[in-house]
Write a structure and sequence with these properties.
By secondary structure, the chain is mostly beta strands. The chain has one domain. It contains no helices and 3 strands. A 3-stranded antiparallel β-sheet has the order 1-2-3, with no helix packed on it. A hairpin with a 5-residue loop joins strand 2 and strand 3. It is elongated and about 35 Å long. The chain binds zinc ion. The site of zinc ion has 5 residues, from loops.
Length: 52
């Protein structure tokens, strides 16, 4: 397991929802992160590490 890689997340898209703005970020290693802002908190989902 790698633990030293720092994800370099780049915003790829964002959408407005009733909960606020949901933004999708992607790292070159393949990891994804979904952040919801404007709501009560920030949700991180669908995040995975490198797969080599
Ligand atoms: Zn990464």
């Amino acid at each position: 397991m790698r633990s030293t890689h720092l994800h370099e997340l780049i915003a790829v898209s964002s959408h407005r929802t009733s909960e606020g703005l949901v933004a999708y970020f992607r790292c070159e290693c393949g990891a994804w992160e979904v952040r919801a802002s404007g709501g009560a908190d920030v949700a991180i989902a669908a995040t995975r590490g490198g797969c080599d």
